[in-house]
Amino acid sequence: MARQPVPDLLPGTLDLLILRTLQTDAMHGWAISERIQQISQDVLQIHQGSLYPALHRLEHRGWIEAEWAVSELGRRAKYYRLTPSGRRQLTVEADTWDRMVTAISRVMKLA
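Request: output the structure for the sequence above.
Response:
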């Protein structure tokens, strides 16, 4: 079976995916990328060139914070976790996403 091309994400979608992935536990960058790919059943593949700028942007906005720790492989890694502000922003972003999906679905069904 031919592999489908990886879709481009709508602006802001990567931020939402990262915030949601960090909702339950702190993770390092590679683990965030792997978790998104795993949950999306390989449809979404987040490359380092997109992931790390997004993590830095979210950290700069105060929505996540980071600290260095030792990974499960015994290497130093920067672990990211949601801040209280990030939890609030996740709610806002998820609500916006739900409205967008509903609107696009309407157009796809009725246009």
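The chain has one domain: 13-110.
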